[in-house]
Amino acid sequence: MSTDASDAPHPNRNLLIGAAAGIAIGLGVAQLPPDSALHATATWVIGLLGGMFIAALKMLMVPLLFASVAGGIRALWAQRDSGRIWRITLLFFAFTAAVAVTLGITAANVFQPGAGLPPDLLPGAAAAPAAHQAPDAAGFLHKLLVESLQNPFRALTEAAVLPLIVAALLLGAAVGQQPQRFATLGRLIDELLDLSLVVVGWVMRFAPIGIGALLAKLAATATAAVFGALAKFAAVVLATTLLHGAVVLPLLVWLLGGLDPLRYFAAIRLPMLTALATSSSAATMPVTLRAADEDLRIDPAVSRFVIPLGTTVNMDGTALYEAAAALFVAQLAGIDLTLSQQLIVALMAMLAAIGAPGIPSAGMVTMVMVLQSVGLPVEAIALLLPIDRLLDAVRTMVNVQGDLATSLVVQRLAGRGRHGHGGTG
Ligand code: ASP
């Protein structure tokens, strides 16, 4: 996978300027007489720019998700001879993602960062009555099994996520099974992903303006209570993500991979810092591979498989974030999600993390599908985007760590050990 888009500058400074300017403009607009022409014009422009930014994210979701899943499965299928390695890899990916999602949902339920605010504060909350009719567990299972087998072209045009993922899985598996015969399609999948990433890079250049406009809208209409809720949400997500990265994964590595936490962290510090600095698993991948080879001394047969695959599909930090964020949005909108709806959120968050490529803020693009799955207002992304730089950096660090942890565990459980972990970096 190309890392072009992730190499594109992710202009921190411009984002900060855009965010500050947006808040200032929003506060200014709030002072204007509501019936003045200037108020109307400013509100229109702010709405237009913010709306375009969100629409661009939604537009990119389908090609990105489709190509990312199809490409990942294709790579997996090409490795199907090393059965034991990939079975343990997939199992461990799924297990840690499930733990992460459970942590995210539990934390959001316990700390309720979005509870107690008037629901009309949330942009678009009024347009979300569907949440109350979202399917229960039995309905969801039916949907999962029957409706996920849909005409793929219809799924593409309607952005129906589950059928889209099923179609991508089938396409990727078939192309991976007969790579010579479907060489063109294989290249098409790769190029579609690369192309989507290029366009994501463009959209992210527009992010300072888009985020500025979204913040302006927020500042013009919201109260300090919303900002308080956002701060609480950020704190809850950060603490839970760190819990997963600093306790859960190292513990699993210790128990299943046979490396104690101190030596483990010493060996992986460089990829962790790179992930923190770039917010991109893909951009970090060369550093991750090097740490796997030289510091953790992982058998290349394992690391060359686990790490590139994990870079696209294994994202515990993203899964945790998306689950917690969906619950936060539901709390803000005053919508009580039932247990089965929360299970749907958990499943969709895991799928969304699989579908997110390893580039900055990719999780925000696939967040759309998690919100849609239980009928929550997609516009709520406007609230989440401004704090995403910080959260993205930390969740990317955990995403990258997950790939290294998996490599260690797979190497040990598949009996592929290269002796002696370097461990001290
Ligand atoms: N930035 C994350 C990564 O590269 C993906 C995300 O946005 O969650 O791993």
Textual characterization of the structure:
This protein has a single domain, classed as Proton glutamate symport protein, CATH 1.10.3860. It is built from 18 helices and no strands. The longest helix is centred in the first third of the chain and has 42 residues. The chain is globular and about 70 Å long. It is an all-alpha fold and 425 residues long. The N terminus and C terminus are likely disordered. Helix content is 76%, strand content 0%. The structure holds aspartic acid. The site of aspartic acid has 16 residues, from helix 16 and helix 18.
Topology summary:
Elements: H1 4-7, H2 12-31, H3 37-78, H4 83-111, H5 137-147, H6 152-158, H7 161-177, H8 183-205, H9 207-221, H10 224-257, H11 261-278, H12 281-295, H13 300-313, H14 316-332, H15 339-355, H16 362-373, H17 381-384, H18 388-413
Helix pairs in contact: 2-9, 3-7, 3-8, 3-9, 3-13, 3-16, 4-10, 4-13, 4-14, 4-15, 4-18, 10-14, 10-18, 11-12, 11-18, 12-13, 12-18, 13-18, 14-15, 14-16, 14-18, 15-16
The chain binds aspartic acid.
